[in-house]
Predict the structure.
Amino acid sequence: LEVGDEVIQLLALRSLGLEFLAGLMTLKIFERNENLCEEGAPPSEVCLTLDGQCRMCKKRPEGNLAHPDDVEPDARDVPPDQILLSMLPRFTLVGDGPVFMGGGQPATVTAAERVTALTINWQIFMKELEKRPKLWAAMTAAAGARYAAIEKLLQKKLRAEERRRRQREAGYGEGAGWGAFGEEEEEDDDLLLDPMGGGELPDGDEGRD
């Protein structure tokens, strides 16, 4: 992505119904393993990734540390006290959850490679969204569904790791590798990626009533 590629930036915003933010957002580079947002942190900035993948991770329950043979291949760079929930592609909105739901960030999002993103202060983001009640309502509902999906996916990932641990200890042995236990069924994690929760953008002028 060329930093000056305004067409891609506008198309990314338009795909989410957020093109009215085009003049308010700035470009920012996140280097590999740099956090875009951190679990539990208060809202700071909202990011729309333009290129590069990110990892979405949650803190593990206390005392539950990862064994190298029990984690997915994509999770090799994840700290042992975190669990990988999903790999987020470009054009993903990050850091917006607390704007709608309050509290801290529901998960940590980290650049898995060099990531270019459009960023905006969360208070400016909220102020602009509040001018568009239909869009605000739709994104709030979607954020609630996303929070529920994150918790559901966390529990599924923990159960999958526990199954792999039991299988490894029952005879696969050290170094058997994650693939030896078979891949889990793919999780339908669209709610983690789509700020509209799979729904349609509100009718009208950018969600205005």
